[in-house]
User: Fold this.
Amino acid sequence: MEHEPAFFETSPTPGVVGKPLNRVDGRDKVMGKAKYSAEYPLPGLTYGVLKTSDIAKGRIQSINASAALKEPGVLAVFTHLNLPKPAKTPNDAEGKKAIGAPMGFLPLTSDAIHYAGQPVALVVADTFERATQAAALVRVSYAAEAPIAAYTDKRAQRFNPEKIQDGKADGYTRRGDAQAAMAAAPVQLTAVYTHAINHHNPMEPGATTAIWEAPDRLTVYESTQGVTRTQKSLSAYLGLPQDQVRVVTKYLGGGFGCKGSCWPHTVLTALAAKGVGRPVKLVLSRKQQFTSMGHREDQTQTLRLGATKEGKLLALIHEKTSTTSPWDNYAEANSKIINLLYDCPTFESHYELARANVMTSTFTRAPGEAPGSFAIECSMDDLAYQLGLDPIEIRLRNYAEKDPSTGQPWSSKSLRQCYARGAELFGWSKRNPKAGVTKNGRLLVGYGMATASYPVHNSQGTARVRLYADGHAVVQAGATDLGTGTYTVMTQVAADSLGLAPDKVRFELGDTKLPTAPNSGGSVAAGTVSSSVYMAAQDVWERLTKMAIKDPKSPLFKAKAEDVAMENGRLQLKKDASKGEDFKALMKRAGIDDIEGSGQGKYGSGYEAGQSAATAPDAHKDEAGKHSMHSFGAHFCEVQVDPDLGTVRVTRWVSVHGAGRILNAKTARSQIIGGSIFGIGAALMEATARDPHYARYTNADLGDYHIPVNADIPDMTVEFIDEHDPYINAMGVKGIGEISMVGVSAAVANAVFHATGKRVRDLPITPDKILGTKSV
Amino acid sequence: MNNFSYLSTTTAKDATAAVTGTKGAAFIAGGTTVLDLMKLNVENHSELVDINLVPFKGIEQTADGLRIGALERMSDVGEHPLVVQNYPVISQSLLQAASPQLRNMASIGGNLLQRTRCGYFRDVAFPCNKRNPGSGCPAQEGENRNLAILGGSKACIATHPGDLGVALAALDAVLLLENAKGKQRRVPLVDFHVVPGNTPQRETVLEPGELIVSVTVPAAAHARKSMYLKVRDRASYAFALASAAVGLDVQGGQIRTARVALGGVGTKPWRSVAAEKILTGAPATEATFRAAAAAAVKDAQPREQNRFKVELAQNTLVRALLELSAA
Assistant:
């Protein structure tokens, strides 16, 4: 990495990077000009509507589409009997791997029904309304069997997987002898935590518009967090070379993980378009959204904690039981954060899965870290009360100076500062250490806090810069803007890297025609793409420097390349700034209107260790470098609880994070606020109810699946600790999309305990779980 | 959603004639329920007869109380000074319901006919005795957290979802109905909705083709001093877990008249005469309110997940009475 330039060195005083620049796409969005993936008015466009299964398990006996096909404008009713065959399916392990499918099953490939809401037909018509009407007229008869709804069903087959998530994480982890350490620990706590099913529910549902440009060439306008991953999946599904599939996502109305993979409706739409020979657009209904793109699984965690009487951790033993689908071993890796958050000499974790008639669950914002932090951060709170210590003090006594799970030093960690600054902003010192005694009239007032942490996952990507001699630039990367500000922050990075004002830079993203960028997931996008953009700009300067030192008319003629630096668009000698020239003059003299550079940005362990991370085993890619790389933060929460009515309202909120370089103070603050609200939703109200007998959701709409509304959320205070991390990437950026919600549900639950003296370990904390609470 | 025809009418006579004359036809006013349920294929109407131009309008003081035209919008009624001042429980029940967008569309008559949010009713893949009589009620042993503890039967425990009906039940409101022959009749709100029994598909006494013309509410001291308290899973835009519509006339610490109805817990707006009997003539104290609340839920038959509503409904009622008597 010494050979790679770093933004810290080339731009010691950033220009617009870090500033609260307004969103560059904001105006287009509020004017309705930003085109989302279901908004491309293609000639000959047709509309696809899914017909989904009424049962959760069994077989399709017959499908009668005759009434549907008689409807005007109906072009086709595709079922497992007549859908054009894909080249591969994820129904076998080889196919699943090649496709990179999140679920080992593609509907419409057989008569088998494995989950409620599974697509059984795809109707195509010339209008959305006609397709919808026809879908209702398709008659499907089933041979139903009794389904299993969840791990809580006694009939569910339970097992301990060797690996979870297709090998990405271990099903069993052991560090030291936790059982012996637990048995000998003077203080022993055991707690059971449950987490409801949560659905991502982005404002924009899953949407696909597929158009076959030629018999072997497909373009898809897709609502996805990663155009390249979708491109790879579709090329494997359809047996096309990757370059014959183009995927476009210019704007995304949220994703939260459910758009991180290529789900069945996308390839079904492409196959339907092939079948009808016309472009097909398919948008999931809100109800279908609940059974089409995964969810956060229902789960129980048991956490045992052993400590000294002084509160020093001796052992942590974690067990998780959760529901998975008939095919896959998916579980969020909750134990990872529990293994590294505190200095604890021993650790053990087990995963247990139960097969049920549900689709495969998937990454949901801070997968693993969110529910895992709920368990460890509530148990640490318990320990603090048990020993009469302040919740911050118990965390400081167990502060991890290096990563206990790997023994590696941290690349950077500002958690102490986060605790201190958060406590100061919140007024933590005013907290009465006793639970259940602080009141505001009839309401019980509670303060709670929790630690947040999220890894810097290994990632890489590329970008291209085209700098024009007239002082403008176009910068490109096939990245995604989930709505969080990628367009804006990359414009800022490009502007500083090129010495231009941001309004002279246009950043383009969301197209596989552009240089390849990673999925916007796992909080890798900001750091990877910004580093790629920065490296591409450096490439431009290297080329221009070469031109200058060979140009007898340049003041830099015969200078050494390593002695030349760029400042504000001017190439000049590092030691004598007066010797140099503006890039425009140089380019004009050379007779070139524009110059292109490209660059590869590496993020996480791959940056520190070179390429080795890419070939490391899946479960250990993040450990390839010498350092353990994580963001850290702390949330502080005040709740007011009505003990008679059971209502919990968050009345104050402070989040302080150390997350490397913050690219835009405004969009970063908004993202932390958004993530915290996401976490408050999980803490207090989000729960998808699955009927225990029918394995079917009973509240699959936004009227009955509650997410927070404005009235649930107070003003929120967000700050960042200045953090300079040279090991993580060229920009020194850590992602913030996910850490924003890690620890949030624990902070809320801890505040509820402080208010009421009642520990609710079953999320969400709805009024029924508070009732019966009286002040202590 | 099925295809349907659409007819706009300007008189009650044309509207009722159209609905009675066409098989599968239904009225549409604000459309916030009927279109929702048609999109879910829960209701399948061949024709929608638009009554928005029928002149069932007006929010006015009458000789003995308040008259609200059935086609007034929730938002207009909820914000009307006459309602806010003299019938605060009605205003509050309206403004705590739904969202501003829905309140701007939904009519008063339609609101009283709003159908349950029971998840089994709203998904045609499930059996449901209300939607498909005789098919069964999976809610009894299923997801019943927000279903009714009062007025249920083995056939159905679906909650009446509305707020306005609860306020109107408390205040002795009377509905004026008109049928296809132009014949009008008056039905007290408390008799308008019916408990499910063995026929949960029948939710009101409204006859086919019959329209709600208006709602009248008698003026009273307990109407002027009234309030609506709604407890829900989030601070706004949610159906009630439990709600209480209460009216009190307290003089010298003694309750002269009281009105009590509960929402979110009954299969219909749940007026509690038993609670009112305990309150009437008693001192306005928490002990009285507690006794009244216990009486209000005496017949509760909770299921596994909605047991908490027995306590919550009482606490909600007590809190409403405490706040009202302290105001």
User: Anything to note?
Assistant: The first strand of chain B starts at residue 5 and ends at 8. The interface with chain A takes residues 1-3, 40-41, 117, 119-120, 122-126, 138, 141-143, 145, 231, 233-239, 241, 308, 311-312, 315-316, 318-319 of chain B (CB under 8 Å).
